[in-house]
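We close this part of the discussion by returning to an individual protein. The sequence in question and its structure tokens are set out directly beneath this paragraph:
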Amino acid sequence: MKFGRVNVVAGALGLLLAGLGGMALGLTFDTYSVKDGNHLLSLVRFYLREGHSHGMPIALFNLMVGSLVDRLGLADRSKRLCSITAMVALVLPFGLALKGASGALSSFPPIGLIGVFGMLASVCFLLVGAFRMRSGADGQ
């Protein structure tokens, strides 16, 4: 595994952090989200929850990229870029959680947009690499 190892590590850390964030949200649910038997969702908790719920699948995406990137029919430079852009996708949940942690300010910069572009770029690399793979059991 030449390029995918960093994605596996990033994906595992992403799952851990998103899981801990979800646990913190769950442990504080009754304190901050329930009033007189009604469920209230503040904008702050909305963005924190979105950071958690986007973090899990993007971390899983990094695990997937980590297991596939070395098999793709791409040059080493493109494999490296695929790996890097997949990790950049983790900026999306981080930016959402930061916006929530900052009080959900309307003037907060769209940091998560960087992650969106990273995700799109890595998916494009995956598609191109998959179409260029030679037929065979391991894609090589």
Remarks:
- The domain at 5-132 is CATH 1.20.120 (Four Helix Bundle (Hemerythrin (Met), subunit A)).
- The chain has one domain: 5-132.
